[in-house]
UniProtKB/TrEMBL annotation:
Molecular function GO labels: glycosyltransferase activity
Gene Ontology CC entries for this record: plasma membrane
Family designation: Belongs to the glycosyltransferase 2 family.
Pfam families referenced in this protein's UniProt entry, alphabetically: Glycos_transf_2 (PF00535)
Domain (Glycosyltransferase 2-like) ranges: 16-182
This protein's UniProt keywords: Glycosyltransferase, Membrane, Transferase, Transmembrane, Transmembrane helix
Name assigned to this protein: Ribonuclease III
Membrane association type: Multi-pass membrane protein
Annotated localization: Membrane
Chief subcellular location: membrane
Transmembrane segments: 246-266, 278-303
Alphabetized CDD domains for the sequence: DPM1_like_bac
Length: 326
């Protein structure tokens, strides 16, 4: 006879971790939908009655925090923490995960703008009961994106993997993690956060669930091109040292070419054919100094990262909490 979930094991307590930055337009639209989802899953016996929706206000300058506190006083399933200032999406998610891990059995991190399909959560929780500790939400298509965003995003995953950083193709930060994964993850102390690349390093059984990514329900994106590039660069340099190895390879190649060049010059001198031209000299000079500056820049990036890591500054500071429901 088939066992129901209740008989098979305890019903898991789920926390949704939802970062919000200046989302006063979006929260009133999506918050009731998150609540609906939680209630529906609870009604089907998939998650326990202690499950909560945890908003992390990432130092918003609009009325986001007052919306969160109002939601909390309306329904205790809505909880909120507030960062002392804007620290960026990755740090906001981290703050939420660390806050939730002591209370929840499973945590799903999801954007607050309704772009991540709510209905994928059921499949994620099912996978958890099947024995997976990490369930990565993977976008099934990128049709709602502009050609430019689609192209840059897809090239990014290819470059990351080519550079040796293990990442899940088309996975952003829509992800289920179990308590034991979060407890292990708490020992990762790095300041340069690239969460989607760190969870594969934590290990434990993992799988993926496909979902459709929709348009934002309201408001506008906080990830302009410059921020996207910075996240991408941070991803590569915090997960892999392959760029430095490539520089070594490039250095070896340029040295070899130069060595051949020197032999050629010696032959020319020996044969008396030494018509000096500034063009070739200038070209070589430009090329070599360009390569050197670029290489210095990449190495500098790693040195900068070491500098930031060595300070051991806190990765998030919580300034306010909504009232608890104990
Ligand atoms: N976000 C955040 N801090 C920031 C920027 C964004 O917490 O500094 C949140 C934002 O409220 C949203 C999620 O991160 O819930 C993803 O941001 P957004 O939708 O602007 O990015 P996109 O989906 O366009 O990549
Ligand atoms: Mg979004």
């Amino acid at each position: 006879m088939e066992k129901t979930i209740d008989e098979a094991r305890d019903v898991a307590c789920l926390y949704l971790v939802i970062p919000c930055y200046n989302e006063e337009q979006v929260l009133p639209v999506t918050a009731p939908r998150f609540l609906e989802k939680i209630k529906e899953m609870e009604g089907r016996g998939l998650i326990s009655g202690e499950s909560r929706i945890l908003f992390i206000d990432d130092g918003s300058s609009d009325s986001t925090w007052s919306i969160v506190t109002a939601l909390n006083s309306r329904d205790h399933r809505f909880q909120g923490i507030r960062q002392s200032r804007n620290r960026g999406h990755q740090n906001a998610v981290l703050a939420g995960l660390m806050e939730a891990r002591s209370k929840a059995d499973i945590v799903i991190s999801v954007d607050c703008d309704g772009q991540d399909d709510f209905d994928a959560m059921d499949a994620m929780v099912d996978k958890y009961y099947d024995g997976y500790d990490v369930v990565y939400g993977v976008r099934s298509s990128r049709e709602s994106d502009t050609f430019f965003k689609r192209f840059t995003a897809e090239s990014f995953y290819r470059i990351l993997n080519a550079l040796g950083a293990e990442t899940i193709y088309n996975h952003a930060d829509y992800r289920l993690t179990s308590k034991r994964v979060l407890n292990a993850f708490a020992d990762f102390h790095e300041v340069n956060l690239y969460l989607r690349g760190l969870f594969p390093l934590v290990g434990f059984p993992s799988t993926t669930v496909e979902y459709e990514r929709h348009e934002r329900m309201a408001g506008s994106s906080h990830y302009p091109l410059a921020k996207m590039l910075s996240l991408a660069f941070n991803g590569i340099t915090s997960l892999s040292i392959k760029p430095i190895r490539l520089i070594t390879g490039l250095g070896a190649f340029v040295s070899l070419v130069s060595f051949i060049g020197v032999i050629w010059v010696i032959c020319k001198v020996a044969s008396g054919d030494t018509v000096s031209g500034w063009a070739s000299t200038a070209c070589i000079l430009c090329f070599v100094s360009g390569v050197q500056l670029l290489s210095l820049g990449v190495i500098g990036e790693y040195v900068g990262k070491i500098y930031m890591e060595s300070k051991h500054r806190p990765r998030y500071i919580i300034s306010d909490r909504t009232s608890g429901d104990e």
